[in-house]
Amino acid sequence: MVHGENPTGFAHQFETLEQQHDAGRLGMWIFLATEILFFGGMFMSYTVYRSLHPQAFLLGSHILEVKFGAINTAVLICSSFTMAMSIRSAQTGKKKGTIIGWLILTMLLGATFLFLKFRFEWYHDYLEHTMPGFGFFYRPEWGTHAPQVQMFMCFYFFMTGLHALHMIVGIGVLLVLTWMASRGRFTSQYFAPLEISGLYWHFVDIVWIFLFPLLYLIRY
Amino acid sequence: MSTTATVENFPNSSAEPQENYLNARYGVRSWLLTLDHKRIGLLYLGTITLMFVVGGIAATMMRLNLLEPQGTLVEPETYNKLFSTHGIVMVFFFLVPSIPATLGNFLIPLMIGARDVAFPRLNLLSWYIFVTGCLLMLYVVFTGGIDTGWTFYPPYSSSYAHTDVFLAAMAIFIAGFSSILTGMNFVVTIHKMRAPGMTWFRLPLFIWSMYATALIFVLGTPVIAVTLLLLGVEKLLHVGIFDPALGGDPVLFQHMFWFYSHPAVYIMILPSMGVISELITAFSRKRIFGYSFVAFSSLAIAVISFLVWGHHMFVSGQSVYAGLIFSVLSFLVAIPSAVKVFNWTATLYKGSISYEAPMLYALGFIGLFTIGGLTGLFLASLSTDVHLNGTYFVVAHFHYVMVGGAVMAYMGGLHYWWPKITGRLYPDLWARFAALIIFVGFNLTFFPQFVLGYLGMPRRYAMYPAEFQSLNVLSSAGASVLAVGYVIPLIYLIWSMKYGPVVGPNPFGTKGLEWTTQSPPPTENFLRTPIVTEEAYNYETAPEPEVVRV
Description:
The structure holds two protein chains of two kinds.
Chain A (H helix, E strand, L loop, with lengths): L16 H36 L1 H10 L2 H26 L4 H32 L18 H37 L9 H25 L4
Helix pairs in contact in A: 1-2, 1-6, 2-5, 3-4, 3-6, 4-5, 5-6
Chain B lengths: L27 H5 L4 H29 L10 H20 L2 H15 L7 H23 L22 H28 L12 H33 L12 H35 L6 H15 L14 H29 L8 H24 L1 H7 L3 H31 L5 H28 L13 H31 L51
Helix pairs in contact in B: 2-3, 2-4, 2-5, 2-15, 3-5, 4-6, 4-7, 4-13, 5-6, 6-7, 7-8, 7-9, 8-9, 8-10, 8-11, 8-13, 9-10, 10-11, 11-13, 11-14, 13-14, 14-15
């Protein structure tokens, strides 16, 4: 048992299970601090360029479809709820089927978000030549702002792309959790992996809550 | 100075080695899949030593080329690649991981009385990520190189780049994740894994400085990651983000680059300060002067380090008022740094000082770091910076901090803990000799560069006016002495792993939990979880040194 884990998920380097939970939680919070700085760098560049080229960013915002952004916002908020419910059902000692159900629902909502994003937004942008690097077309109505409109779209794809990447990672984590739940690993005493992954999932949702107005709603 | 005795006199130096982390398991697999923080520290040690050699070769070729005003060795384009390779490899692949990833990994659990770091798997993963970054960087170096300078400023890195900037940026991006994971692991370990009785103010000062470093790892590295990613996107898709020709803002790149890269300087120096605090107390056999001041000055440096990045950009077109504020904030860093230097000096006062090899490095550090730090004040002053910016004065300044500071402390720390790591002592006479050679070679190399810079010789040029030749020859001669100084320890340290005299748990008779367990430590570090009942550096209760001089 030198470097292994025993079936209850207790690792050898800790003295108590509680210490292990605390460490995991703190680790995730620190990771989220890292993520805030990571996205923060992007938000900062966005802010600088928006203040330099406000008109172009306004024009760029018109390219985006608020409808899909709004639907996706609702989808993500629902997924945060289902994620929270999966933790809650472990805490209150519900059957493993309940936990798995909430987890699968969360994954489905995440997948819906990605499907809408890629199929109806990104693919549409590709066809309309509003995807930088893939035949971006300067529309005449943009006039001299065209290069900065392209910059706006570049930020749009960069920010939503990284956000989507985080979603995909999150769905991967949820798959692992579902597998763990199916083996009956979670009890009302031991649910730290659910809780810690939940922190991550909520964080990714919150990033979207900032992205949605900054990208879609600035034209109002 | 203690009396001399032979190794055989020690009860601990039995012929049959005890089971420890080195001999518990054998084979390549047992190393590549290890979760033991001590073995992972050694994996890092091997990796960064290789990277140091690569960066060192580039430096040697630069100094050879600068022997003559017209350049003796390489074309100017190749020279650009040499200094870029030297900078990138030394900063991102040697100095940033140097003390944290090797000594930090090895010592943090031992010093706080834990069995391992909080997340051993993450620890191993971070080494693999680091190696991936290293391999990618080496691939770039050996297939065309990179010529942007280590700072990747656009438009050198965008419109005017002739080399594979994208891959080099990705190499650093990847290596950055290793820093983030290591930082996370250290913060959690220090918070949650301390032994009973090990309160915050009983922690060794090395731990405080590693904690401050880990905070910078966690909060700074993601910003350089996103900056390099944006640079990569710009290169790949050819859309303007930082390149002025495409409508981007190159100054924004500089802001974002230095937001990480200035704190990165403190990633290099803070761990060194931690090592020096240990060495000074160990070889003065005395309590540190002003424990809490030294501890909090580490945190103060970490915090202020995030507020001074603009001093790299006084002549880059940022506003005068921004420059003014950054200048004032930069001066503030001098305060916690000076607190440390004064407290180390005060610790020496009336101490029982012995000049072991690690102590020679520590004393060298104090002198060289002081010069490096004080010349930093010249560069933080707006008006003098206009004259000195982009000259060899800057080069000399940061080498005094990074080589005279960080590398000296790394070498000192490596020697001090070598008996703990390997269970054997290095040849003492050779070690002192090498420390001296490094000190002399270092000053010979870099002091002339202060003068060159003051006289106006710009950095990053393959050629120079003839009147600068004598100082350049002096500097190149010093570099060769320095190179010899680095090769000697490489040889005798490797030699000592097999032939060095075997030592007991505490060869220097110093304080700290790491010295209470056997050398090398068992896989689980301590046979029984230690209980801490006293402050660090309480030398009144320290054991006598086991004298192990050869």
